[in-house]
Amino acid sequence: MSDVPRQRAQRLLREAAIDALVLAKPESFAWATGAPPGVASFFRRAGSALALVPAAAGEPIAAVATELFAPHARRALGQAQVLTHSDWVETADIRPWLDSSEGAAELMQRAWRADGRPAGFARPAAFDARRSFEQLGVLLRERGLADARIGLDLDFWPASDFALLQEVLPGLRWVDASAVIARIKAVKSAREIALLQQAAALAEAGMRRAVASVRTGMHRDAIAQAWKDGVAAEVQRRGVRLSGQWEYTTVGPLPWQGGGQIATGDVLKFDVGCLIEGYSSDSGRTYVLGKARPRTRQIMQALEDAFAAGIEVLKPGHLLSDVHARATRAIHKAGFAGFSRGHYGHSLGHDTFCEVPPFIAAQAHEAIEAGMVLAFETPVYVDGEGGFIIEDQFLITEHGAEPAWSLPRALIELPEQGL
Fold this sequence. Notes:
Elements: H1 6-15, E1 20-23, H2 26-33, E2 50-54, E3 62-66, H3 70-77, E4 82-85, H4 104-114, H5 129-142, E5 149-152, H6 159-168, E6 173-176, H7 178-186, H8 190-213, H9 220-238, E7 244-247, E8 250-251, E9 267-276, E10 279-280, E11 283-289, H10 294-311, H11 320-333, E12 343-347, E13 356-361, E14 373-382, E15 386-397, E16 400-403, E17 412-414
Parallel strand pairs: 1-5, 3-4, 5-6, 11-17
Antiparallel strand pairs: 1-2, 2-3, 7-9, 8-9, 9-10, 9-11, 12-13, 12-14, 14-15, 15-16
């Protein structure tokens, strides 16, 4: 099932005078088609899989996929909406003749003939981008888009692949639609929201296990492993499939060095996420072992003030830049006049990294909309004191921001217990 909000896409594409999108980024192909892009996409080159999304919401989405993965795309989009090209993987389907007395070689030859394989057929080393672009041209002509203005996710395309596309299909007007695509993706489908919330629940279960396990002298790696163990236990309890996880856990006064064994007064920062079907959660908390030092409290209080100020406007009716401005003013008011943070969070979704646009930044004069899933954070990293973060994943509703985690955001002093 496609997760493209077609009416929203139609409005934004028409505002940008774009007649259709061609999406080459593997994650965007999956988002648009509801089908896997296939093993050829592992090369991270344009042309392995292409999704064609017309601006008109009533027009069907189409695709160019490798022969091996075309059945997935056809089940998602329909037989007529998918054209194919070859990759390097040799296959044969001999199921129609399993009762035959013929040997394997004869049956495979029969299968290839049935598929219409021409004499002298040879597979490419990886995949044939030229052939993929030729098939895209067929789709565009069939849909009356042969001289249209087509938007590309050019923030993904290698320059050589774009040059080949222009050579193969010279009559089209290609434009960079990266920013428009990000705006379309910013509002999530119900399925995407459910995946992100489930991923956040897994990460929070891991956090509870990790925090409960902390002991004086415990190594950073053991604390991080406790988080992973907690996630694994929750995955098993829920019966879900985890597609990935990540953690930035730091201990002690040098946050960019990770830290060794935790000692009294050390700051412990968690920034963690879990992935389900490629959709990554993102949340974080800060703790201290034993009694917090005065500077630790001063820093955390400033971050708490900034978080409270930002969350007041993290809702429809405000801009993302409003959140950034509120948070920055609060930190400056707390005495940190030179503090500068490029962004206080970002959208979440299905991509190569958990941080995706739009960002909660000074330059982001974009409206906050219901259906967005945003990570809002107030972090700072102070060599000599430690790494600090307050971060929550929020679902934006008509009434405000609903957090995915229930763990307290304030600094908590963990009891000192020996190993």
